[in-house]
Amino acid sequence: MSPAATPRTLVVGFDGATLEMCDRWRAYGRMPVLDGLMADGSWARMRSVFPFNSAVAWTTLVTGLSPGTHGIFDFVLPREGAYSLRVATGDDRRVPAVWTHASAGGARVGVVNIPMTFPSEPVNGFMISGMDAPGLGERAVHPPELLDRIRRIQPDYRIMSKAYIRAEHGEWDSAERELIGAMEARARLVAKLARPRDLDLLMVNLEATDGSHHFFWQHFDPTHPRHDRELARRYGDTIGRVYEATDRELGRLIDAYAPDTVFVVSDHGGGPSNDWVLYMNDWLAAEGFMAIQRRARASLAKRAYGTAMKHMSVPLKRRLRPLFGAWIERAKGIALYGDVDWSRSRAYGTVQSMVRLNEVGREPTGTVRPEDREAVLKELADRAAARRFPDGRPLFERVARASEVYEGTVPGGPDLVVEPELGTQVRGRNTSGREGFLLRVSEMGVWYPSGEHTPVGMAVAAGTGIERRGEVDEQGISQVAPSILAVMGVPAPTLSGEPFPFVSSGLVSTGRTVEAAAPAGSELSEAEEAEVLERLRGLGYVD
Ligand SMILES: [Zn+2]
C-alpha cells in the first residue's frame, strides 16, 4: 500500500466524552482544535454497547462487531467450569481489530493506550497496551525494543494515571494533576514516535476526560448528592480544564503527525452518579434465585475482605502484593460466591448488570435444565421489572435477553441483562457489613466515583474522505471501524455496521464474514491481576 494513496488517518479517543460537554466548553472558546475539525467536517452522537464500559465499548469500536462476537463482555469474565471470575485481557478478544486489517493490507500502524490490547499485538508498526496491562513492561509494548526507547524519551509515561487513588483520598489537586499529567506524557511520547510521519494509521486514547467525570462530577454539578460548595469553588471547573487540556493534546498530535483525516471518538458518555449502590448477587438472593448458606467462614471472609478493601492503604497493599495477589483472588472468590448453595441456586450475577443462569451442563452444579431456561428468564425479568426504589420509581431501566442485546453467541456472556437506572453503582456482592441489596452511598461512609458512564458518546471527523455535513443523526459505535477502513481503502470482511453517512467512500469488502476464533487464553498472574483490579476498583467497576 503506497502512503500516497492512503490518507494518513488519526483516531483520537476522548474517553467517555459527550457532545454536550464539548459544546459547553467550546462555547467559551476552550476547545479550538475540536472547533476547527467540526467547522470542516461532520459529527454525531454515538450510541455505545451494553454494558457501556471501556473494555466492551472500545473492543466494539476497534472491531466493528458486537460483544456476542468479539467475546469481551466485561472487564472480568466467568471462568469456564467454575463459579469464579478472572480479569479479561486483549487475549480474550476473538476477532481482528482495525489495526490487524490495516497491517495485513500493508499499512503501517501505531496504537497507543486502547483498552483491551494487552498483551501487545505484532502489528506492522508499534503498539503500547492500554488499561488492561498491569504495567509498562515488555509484554505491553510492540516491538519489545521500543520499551527502552519509551523509558529514555518519555520517562514519565505510564499506562494509567493514579488519579483514582488521589480522588479516593480527597486529594483533589493531585488527582487533577495526575489526570492531565498522564495524558500529556502520553501525547508527548506519541508526538515523538509519530514525528517521522511513517504511519498510515495512528490511534491514541487520550483518556483523561473519563476520569474527570468519574472523580470530579460532584464538584461540577450543584445538584449532585455529594456537592460541596467550598470544594466546588476550586474544582468545579476541573472537568472543563481536563477537556481544555485534552483539546490541546489533540492539537499536539495533529501538529506532529499531520494527518489527512482525523476522527475524534468516545467509547461511551458520562453523567452524574445517583446516591445508590445495587449489589447484584444480594438482589438475586432477595428474589429467591440464589440460595445463601450462612457459613461462618464465608461471612467472616466477606467481612474481612470488605474491611481490608476499605481501610488498607494503597502503599500497604502494594508492599503486600506478593501475598496480597493470592489473597485477593481467594478472598474475592469467597466474598462473591463463597457462601452460595449452588444446588439450590438458579442464577448468579457477575460484577456488572449481567445475570447468568445456573445451567445444567454449563455450570458445575447447574440446576436450570435447558427446557426450563425460558421460564426462569421470564420469571427473573418480571421480578426485575417490578422492583422499585423506595420512592416508587423503577429500579431497572432495561431488562433484556442476551439475544436481544448481542449479535453472535460466543461463550462468557450473560443470559439476561438487567440495567439499573443510570447513575446507580452496581457491585457484585455486599461486603459493607450493612444489610440489604440496595444501599445509599451517602450512608455508607465509603468513597464511590461521583460520575458514571452513560450510553451515548460522540464522533467527530474531518479531512480526506469526510464530507462537510455538520451534525448528523445519532450513529452507532460499531460504525467506527468500517469508517476508518473505508477512508483508508483497506479491504475488510463484512462488519456489523456501515461506515458513517459522512464518509464519502464505501467499505471495500473482501466478501468474507468474520469467524470468532478461540481466544488466546493467557491469564494474568495473581500479582498482575491484583494491579488491574486495584485500578478497576478506583473507577468503580469492582469492589
Ligand atoms: Zn471508556
Task: Tell me what the structure shows.
- This protein is α/β, with parallel strands linked by helices.
- The protein folds into two domains: 352 residues, 3-Layer(aba) Sandwich (Alkaline Phosphatase, subunit A); 126 residues, no CATH class.
- Helices cover 37% and strands 17% of the residues.
- The protein is built from 19 helices and 23 strands.
- Strands 1, 2, 5, 6, 7, 8, 9, 19, 20 and 21 form a ten-stranded mixed β-sheet that branches.
- Strand 12 and strand 13 form a beta hairpin.
- The radius of gyration is 23 Å and the shape is globular.
- The model has no long low-confidence stretch (mean pLDDT 90).
- Bound molecules: zinc ion.
- Zinc ion (ZN) binds next to loops.
Annotation keywords:
alpha/beta, 2 domains, single chain, 543 residues, ten-stranded mixed sheet, binds zinc ion, Alkaline Phosphatase, subunit A, four-stranded antiparallel sheet
For the terminal residues, how far apart are their CA atoms?
48 Å
Give the helix tally. Answer: 19
CATH topology of the largest domain: Alkaline Phosphatase, subunit A
**Assembly state of the chains shown:** single chain
Let me know the number of strands. 23
Computed over alpha carbons, the radius of gyration is 23 Å
> CATH superfamily name of the largest domain?
Alkaline Phosphatase, subunit A
Hetero ligands: zinc ion
Main beta sheet? 10 strands, mixed
Output the CATH class name of the largest domain: Alpha Beta
SSE-based structural type: alpha/beta
Helix content: 25-40%
Morphology: globular
List the domain count as a whole number. Answer: 2
CATH architecture label of the largest domain: 3-Layer(aba) Sandwich
Q: What proportion of the residues form beta strands (DSSP E)? A: 15-25%
What would the average pLDDT be, to the nearest integer? Answer: 90
**Low-pLDDT residue intervals, each spanning 5 or more residues:** none
